[in-house]
Amino acid sequence: MDVKVIDNFLDAYAFNEVQKFIVYNDKFEVFINTKVTFDEYSGKEEGMVKQEEDNWSFYFGHTFYVNNLPQSPYAKKLLDFFVPKFQSLGIFKSLLRAKLNLYTNTSEIKEHQPHTDYQFPHTSALFSLNTCDGFTRMNDGTKIDSVENRMVIFDGSILHNSSTTTNAKARYNINFNFL
Predict the structure, then answer these.
(1) Closest listed residue to residue 116, CA positions, set 41, 33, 46
(2) Residues in CB range of 72: below 8 A, 6 or more apart
(3) Is 151 exposed, middle or buried (0-12, 13-18, 19+ CB in 10 A)?
(4) pLDDT of 170 above 90
(5) For the chain, the helix, strand and coil percentages under 3-state DSSP, each to the nearest 5
(6) What HEC string does 47-77 produce?
(7) For the whole model, what pTM was predicted?
(8) What's the CA gap between 32 and 59, in Å, rounded?
(9) What is the pLDDT of residue 33?
(10) What's the pLDDT score for residue 47?
(11) If phi over 0 gives left and psi between -120 and 50 gives alpha, with beta otherwise, what is residue 121?
(12) Binning pLDDT at 50, 70 and 90, where does residue 162 land?
């Protein structure tokens, strides 16, 4: 599967609503994850076994769905905005996971360890909620900038990595994984 980048993925109304209930909602809960990658998904088979232990190597997250089961009071609201678009692209089959990733600001861009979302072929769809200088780098070196309302679709079993941001308070994206 090639990497597909779709700008203006949601219509303006839907995008503003999603951004409002996640980014601009003081009551939206995020939870700390002390590591961005874990050994089983970090490319150790390619020789990348060093686990991140730097002060910037963490993120905040919010899990909406796991194995097609809601994990959040916001789960249905989120999918109501995205499912029609996913269906029109033919990628909405079985939802493995939907989660928010919030990477904090650092004084210089920091790239996280390469990882896979799952170790078997599947579709990943990464949606940017804000524009910043953070990015996702694919295993072939392709760098995809974080641009609000941009969806990046790729095989999540291929190594890729995230980054922090320097020009925004945080980098917000939603990661969807489908069978």
Answers:
(1) 41
(2) 62, 63, 64, 65, 78
(3) buried
(4) yes
(5) 20, 35, 50
(6) CCCCCCCCCCCCEEEEEEEECCEECCCCHHH
(7) 0.89
(8) 6
(9) 82
(10) 40
(11) beta
(12) very high
Sign for the CA dihedral angle at 169, 100, 117, 38 comes to positive
Tell me which DSSP letter residue 82 carries.
Answer: H
One-letter amino acid of 16: N
Residue 132 one-letter amino acid: C
Could you give phi then psi for residue 78, rounded to 5 degrees?
Answer: -60, -50
**Strand order across the beta sheet in which 143-145 lies:** 143-145, 135-138, 160-161
What amino acid is encoded at 87 in this protein? Q
Please choose, from the candidates 174, 156, 16, 151, the residue with its C-alpha nearest in 3D space to the C-alpha of residue 98: 174
Sign of torsion over alpha carbons 109, 16, 78, 8: negative
Residue owning tokens 């020789």: 47
Residues making up the chain, counted from first to last: 179
Angle among Cα 148, 175, 33 to the nearest 5 degrees reads 110
For the segment 106-143, what is each residue's pLDDT rounded down to a tens digit?
999 999 889 999 999 999 999 999 999 999 999 999 99
Alpha helices in 7-149 (DSSP H): 12-22, 75-89
